[in-house]
Amino acid sequence: MTDHFVRYDVADGCATLTLDSPHNRNAISSRLVEELQRGLSDAAADDAVRAVVLTHTGGTFCAGADLSEASGAEGSPAELAAGRTRQMTELLRSIVELPKPVIARIDGHVRAGGMGLVGACDLAVAGPESTFALTEARLGLAASIISLTVLPRLTSRAAGRYFLTGEKFDAQEAEAVGLISEAAPDPEATVRELVAALRKGSPQGLAESKRLTTMRMLADFDRYGDELAGQSARLFGSAEAAEGMMAFLQKRPPAWAVEG
């Protein structure tokens, strides 16, 4: 296990936040969220930082919620879910509100809550090893809070398909439906080009331009956040979700699965 779940580096006017929790495929744990929030705050306070890159180690960008943490903690499932939901909402909002552009650099698997991180970023570049899926419905859950950042990115037909089916799709499809900015053979080189372009913008110009592109998303946080948090807590506290998460951890089909 690494000393940090999130590594923070600054070079050439760019802060890089690297998800580095390989033991659980960069799952969204309390510790990862805390360290990511700290990195975002550091980047916001550093006048030398013009842009932020969010990336990962290993073959998974982010596997979604840490289900082992979700199922192993003390307290009622609904109470625990409320705390995790609040934490996730604050993290996504921090990315969206950050007065500096955030670029996701992906070359690995993105699942469930990881999709919310991608949606919150202003730009997203994915390489050939990338795959994406909204798997919540298969666990007895719904993409409640992350819908605030994912739905504004997707076409309505793509949202209807992937929110419901949980199907996996690749970087080319992610670009076609609007989830990412570009599917690139070399995402690191493409992101370097984007950062170079962003460095030509003034801090004020970048911050105010970003505000124009995110103001409607932030309005939805205010309008729907409490309702979606309530839905998330209710679902996590349900018997179906308990069965879905246990089946996932035990690597078996859930009770409702229909073969064929």
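the 2nd protein, sequnce then structure:
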Amino acid sequence: MTDMALAQKMRAGAEKKKNVDHSQKTFWERNKLSGGYLLKKRIMDVGVSIVRFILLFGMCFMILQPILNKISVSFMTEQDLYNPIVIAIPEHFTTANYRLAAELMNYSQALVNSLIVALTIALLQITVCTLVGYGFARFDFPLKKIWFACVILVILIPPQTIASSLHLHFRFFDILGLIKLTTGSTLNLRGSAIPYYLMSAGCMGLKNGLYIFIIRQFFRGLPIDLEEAAYVDGCGMLKTFVRIMLPQAKPPITSCFLFAFVWQWTDGFYSRLFLGNTKLVSTSLSRIIDSLGAYIQRINGVKTTISVAYSNCILATGTLMIIMPLIILYLFAQRAFVESIASTGIKM
């Protein structure tokens, strides 16, 4: 062994021994050698962890505390509502509030109708918004920027501003004057689900502009080489979209479908405007206080003033009955939802 190799071996052994000796020193010895830096860093890390915990706990408490209060109130009798001793845990536990709320909202029928409407509307909206979003991301056509500006306006302009126009359009529905020319009068589509399905098919339903924007941003982030390779292999545009691009878009489609289902489930504006004759959980909840007054008057035979506390109790119970299916849906879909949000955020 040469002198240079021997010197390198001895130097490496000394460095290794020095590192071992340094690792065996106590925290305070290492802190003394660092001039107090280790202690300051440890205090800073602990302080940041405490502040982070307080902020997260506060945010979670602000979100969960109203729900926990509603759960507690929903199991209380009217006597417990006015008892100052009862705060969070009911003294007289009861499930009568749930039975009464279910009767007032016609819950079983409203639940089935809401499930059918929300599911079909969500599927229709995601189908057409995926096609439109892919078209905006991959194809050039006349007035493309103007049409996309219209999509942004659909996101920004609240639907209440065009409520009167929608009412008149579907109250006197006509297609280029052909219906009136043939039958002598226009069609009245109010009170049926047809107008809402037509709007959803035309990407003018609830939050459709947002879905188009999310899906368009995702497709823009995908490399165009995927489609070019498919075209070289003989695939057409539709086959390339269905077999190559659509499987890649599962994350944003999953996110948009869950958003569409949840927002449609709790929607009150479009449901009252177009689906007024259909019993839904969202519209039933808005009328639960009036239904409670009519129910008590029918039971007692005379008009009775309902206490504010008891009205709020029944309203809280009905709210829990509406959001419970959404919580169950989230429990089953949370993994796919979180993954879709993370993947969409990365690719956007």
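Residues 308-347 form the longest helix (40 residues). The mean pLDDT is 82.
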